[in-house]
């Protein structure tokens, strides 16, 4: 065990966990005020459901001994058997140079945010209980096996597809599922007919900032060591994201006449997504190119929903699926063995083979996730119901699903506080020092 590597991965785990609350702020600011709590609760709900399942059997499915290159043995580490304490010799199980329990925690955060990302596509119209059920089933049959495909010895890793920190397993995976659920739940009432603008852009900017902050743990932490690889991943995560923001703003300036704060925040996320699979495989120029291209293509891709008619509420498909595809594919163009010691993309004299392998892995994950999410979503819709009623959607999903609202504008603040004050009006005069 290396104490420096262990400390870095513990810190990275905390940074990646922070990304999900950051995502809740990012998504929460983008919806209308009547849906802000529901959107944030969908993100936090993913922490609860996926976190528990990951600890019980998810880690084992992802990282247990491979069964036909499709999934890990679910029973090998069931309940984290053999990973949570010292053996008879007083030694802890290791994953590389860190305790296996630290690896469990670090990878748990990836599982959580992957599911939370999907929620943005179905904002304003999903029943909360149905969402939690979907999160549990999709994580079990899609994310856990796909994590095994990419990092646990499964077929994607076996054929030679490169994915440093989650372009396929996290972003293409969640983006494809988001597209499937947008199809299952259909369009929001009034979509394309009435304005559905973000209700709180400062909240969006704050969320984007927290995502960028946490993403250094996401990418640099994936080096599993406090070393030069982590340094390369950190530099590329910063540079590519900055370039992507500029690329997105450039498109807005040319297309719409104005660079916007929402565009800056979205460009940041697009760059983070694009560089994730490539962070430790490209040099400075490759990282900047990936970021800039991701910013431009994602800015253009978010408009596809209007052309094809699917209501991806918060552009999960346009940013995460497209950004993940850009970053994963461009490894085949700009990866260099001068950085990772083994991979040269087409532009660095490596030929077309790596590019082809990148596409095979990316498309395989995309199709699998889309089809399974479509099946799960339709099954939930036809049984317990996935979409809220029209009255609930119009009136506001926060009050219906959570008996709360994000903002109270009445003269007494909260209606419940006002009611309690009224009920206690005959309780006698306030004593000195009591609260007003």
TrEMBL record:
One of its GO terms (cellular component) is plasma membrane. It is found in: Cell membrane. The chain crosses the membrane at residues 6-27, 39-62, 104-123, 130-152, 164-186, 198-218, 230-250, 262-279, 285-304, 316-335, 355-380. It comes from the Bacteria. Belongs to the ammonia transporter channel (TC 1.A.11.2) family. Homotrimer. PANTHER family: AMMONIUM TRANSPORTER MEP2 (PTHR43029:SF10). Pfam families: Ammonium_transp (PF00909). This is Ammonium transporter. Keywords: Ammonia transport, Cell membrane, Membrane, Transmembrane, Transmembrane helix, Transport. One of its GO terms (molecular function) is ammonium channel activity. The keyword Phosphoprotein does not apply. It comes from Haloechinothrix alba. Residues 7-407 form the Ammonium transporter AmtB-like domain. Involved in the uptake of ammonium/ammonia (NH(4)(+)/NH(3)). It is a multi-pass membrane protein.
């Amino acid at each position: 065990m290396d104490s420096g590597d262990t400390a870095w991965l513990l810190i990275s785990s905390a940074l990646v966990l922070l990304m999900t609350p950051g995502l809740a702020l990012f998504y929460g600011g983008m919806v209308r005020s009547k849906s802000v709590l529901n959107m944030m609760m969908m993100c936090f709900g993913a922490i609860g459901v996926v976190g528990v399942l990951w600890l019980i059997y998810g880690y084992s499915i992802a990282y247990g001994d491979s069964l036909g290159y499709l999934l890990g043995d679910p029973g090998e580490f069931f309940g984290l058997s053999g990973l949570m304490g010292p053996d008879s010799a007083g030694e802890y199980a290791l994953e590389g140079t860190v305790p296996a329990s630290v690896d469990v925690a670090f990878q748990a955060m990836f599982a959580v945010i992957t599911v939370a990302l999907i929620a943005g596509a179905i904002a304003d119209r999903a029943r909360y209980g149905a969402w939690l059920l979907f999160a549990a089933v999709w994580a079990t049959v899609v994310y856990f096996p796909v994590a095994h495909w990419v990092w646990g010895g499964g077929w994607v890793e076996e054929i030679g597809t490169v994915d440093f920190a989650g372009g396929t397993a996290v972003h293409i995976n969640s983006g494809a599922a988001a597209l499937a659920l947008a199809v299952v739940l259909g369009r929001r009432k009034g979509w394309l007919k009435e304005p559905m603008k973000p209700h709180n852009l400062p909240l969006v900017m704050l969320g984007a900032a927290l995502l960028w902050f946490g993403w250094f743990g996401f990418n640099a932490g994936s080096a599993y060591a406090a070393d030069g690889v982590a340094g390369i991943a950190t530099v590329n995560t910063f540079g590519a994201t900055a370039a992507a923001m500029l690329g997105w703003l450039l498109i807005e300036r040319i297309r719409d006449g104005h660079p916007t704060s929402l565009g800056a925040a979205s460009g940041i996320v697009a760059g983070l997504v694009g560089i994730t699979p490539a962070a430790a495989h490209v040099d400075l120029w490759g990282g900047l190119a990936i970021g800039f291209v991701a910013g431009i293509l994602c800015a253009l891709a978010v408009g596809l929903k209007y052309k094809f008619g699917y209501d991806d509420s918060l552009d999960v498909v346009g940013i995460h699926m497209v950004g993940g595809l850009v970053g994963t594919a461009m490894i085949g163009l700009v990866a260099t063995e001068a950085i990772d010691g083994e991979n040269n993309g087409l532009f660095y004299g490596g030929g077309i083979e790596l590019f082809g392998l990148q596409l095979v892995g990316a498309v395989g994950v995309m199709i699998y996730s889309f089809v399974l999410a479509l099946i799960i979503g339709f099954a939930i819709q036809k049984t317990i119901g996935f979409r809220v009623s029209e009255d609930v959607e119009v009136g506001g999903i926060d009050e219906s699903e959570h008996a709360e609202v994000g903002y109270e504008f009445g003269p007494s603040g909260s209606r419940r506080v006002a009611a309690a004050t009224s009920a206690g009006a005959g309780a006698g005069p306030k004593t000195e020092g009591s609260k007003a």
